[in-house]
Amino acid sequence: MFSRILIPTDGSAASAETGMAGIRFAQKFDADVVGIFVAPAFQYPLYIQTMPPAYLSDEEYRNSMQTVGETYLNELRIMATQAGLHFTAEVVFSDAVAIAIIDAARRFHCDLVFIGSHGRSGCQQLFLGSVTLKVLSACPLPVLMYRPATAT
Fold first, then answer.
1. Mean pLDDT, residues 116-121 taken together
2. For the packed helices 131-138 and 97-107, what is the interaxial angle rounded to 10 degrees?
């Protein structure tokens, strides 16, 4: 039924639990797994002329976030490999996380997005926004939302 499943991660405990559940789900279909980590785009300081010497450059920031993303994606890679599944991953830089997830699902020809929800509701959801809600409402592909036990 599903041949390639996209699993986004942000490195949180809830995301790690969602990743494990996504791998178990993919294993039932012997589906390939695609992992994605979306890092925020680099933001230049307001007054670039007075930039403090300790401020990261664009290249340093990108290298640092690439390493962070690869670390989180490697956790998914290990789980997928242990489950006998083919795994591909990508670190993307974007301030539009939901759009980046949907774009990756299209680029990798996924037929399902398996995404976690942190379980925020009410005013907290309103103020913080919800990547999962945005993916659910904008993605043309099927989306399976998983609510991890560690969600707060």
1. 68
2. 50
Tokens of 85: 């599944």
Residue 119 DSSP SS3: coil
**Parallel, antiparallel or unpaired: strands 143-146 and 4-8:** unpaired
- What is the number of structural domains in the chain? 1
Cβ neighbours for 67, distance < 8 A, ≥ 6 positions apart: none
Please count the other Cβ atoms lying within 10 Å of the Cβ belonging to residue 98.
Answer: 22
Report the distance separating Cα 58 and Cα 43, nearest Å.
8
Whether residue 61 lies inside any domain: the answer is yes
What is the C-alpha separation between 8 and 52, in angstroms, rounded? 34
Query: Is 124 among the domain residues?
Result: no
Task: Give tens-digit pLDDT for 63-74.
Answer: 999 999 999 999
